[in-house]
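Tip: read the tokens left to right.
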């Protein structure tokens, strides 16, 4: 049985060693394709794979078609918008993610980006503090919740919006105020941390209107996906409101223009680095390997996202 780990952005060495040991102990063969630069390399590598472990790597219908033996794809991470679920489902391929495994790393980065922006991107001058400010969490999943808890530890007032969470007690237990409308969330948030997935409903959903409703001096923080932003609306809001800031871990398609037009009010990390910690790599990588083995040996489908 061949398990292919295909990561354009490789896991830390220790994580790869851990994955290898889980896969080989199960009696399978590990194939590694790292830092590939061409889609053709991936198409070639999947040809004899029964299982595929990826990060943000694009598992398109073309990749699936090039993998006749493929039975399972595990996205080592949370967001699985990079996998063509319809194409996988049509072939009976199980797709999973590893929820929660890299959340802390992303949450820490979200807070770091807030501090970076509120301290003038670490350049001389008077900045401001997070303490006492209102932190809005858009989607209270694994990452959103951790951002909220960490924000509280820094003395922020935390408000959250997530219509999909049924456990009302969760918010109260965390000392977080649950809001019933997305409008109120943006109206109140000095820092708005985005944790919505990229879906047909959310793509392009955060733009002019939401930004314009934010309080004076507000910062929109994106460690989710670039696709959820309406970039035209973002640029328009930033032009009309000189007090607004945008910081992101996923550079906008129009990032160069945003940088040029809005200077220090916008910032994008050079390459998505939310989950780029040794700990997150290890947690997500090992979980993915265990899930592959659990499925191939015992048919375990926990964390399947295309049921
Ligand atoms: C996720 O969805 O888990 C994060 O966006 C991390 O993505 P990455 O594995 O490409 O760093």
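Filled-in amino acids:
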């Amino acid at each position: 049985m061949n398990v292919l780990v295909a990561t354009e952005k490789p896991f830390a060495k220790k994580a790869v060693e851990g994955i290898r040991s889980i896969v080989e102990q199960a009696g399978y063969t590990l194939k590694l394709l790292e830092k590939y630069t061409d889609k053709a390399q991936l198409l070639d590598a999947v040809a004899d794979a029964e299982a595929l472990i990826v990060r943000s790597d694009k598992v398109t219908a073309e990749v699936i078609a090039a993998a006749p033996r493929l039975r399972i794809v595990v996205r080592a991470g949370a967001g699985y918008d990079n996998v063509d679920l319809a194409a996988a489902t049509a072939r009976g391929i199980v797709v999973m993610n590893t929820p929660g495994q890299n959340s802390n790393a992303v949450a820490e980065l979200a807070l770091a980006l807030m501090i970076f922006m509120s301290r003038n991107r670490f350049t001389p001058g008077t900045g401001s503090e997070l303490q006492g400010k209102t932190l809005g969490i858009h989607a209270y999943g694994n990452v959103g919740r951790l951002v909220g808890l960490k924000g509280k530890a820094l003395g922020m007032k935390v408000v959250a919006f997530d219509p999909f969470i049924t456990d009302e007690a969760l918010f109260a237990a965390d000392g977080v105020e649950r809001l019933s409308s997305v409008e109120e969330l943006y109206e109140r948030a000095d820092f708005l941390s985005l944790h919505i997935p990229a879906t047909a409903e959310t793509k392009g959903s955060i733009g002019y209107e939401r930004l314009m409703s934010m309080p004076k001096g507000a910062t929109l923080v994106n460690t989710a996906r670039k696709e959820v932003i309406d970039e035209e609306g973002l640029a328009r809001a930033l032009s009309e409101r000189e007090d607004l800031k945008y910081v992101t871990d996923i550079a906008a398609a129009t990032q160069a223009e945003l940088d040029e037009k809005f200077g220090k009010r916008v910032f994008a990390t050079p390459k998505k680095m939310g989950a780029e910690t040794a700990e997150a790599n290890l947690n997500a990588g090992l979980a993915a390997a265990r899930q592959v083995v659990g499925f191939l040996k015992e048919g375990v489908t926990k964390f399947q996202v295309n049921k």
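The pocket of 3-phosphoglyceric acid is lined by residues 9, 55-56, 77-79, 102, 272, 274-275 (CB under 6 Å). The chain has a mean pLDDT of 98.
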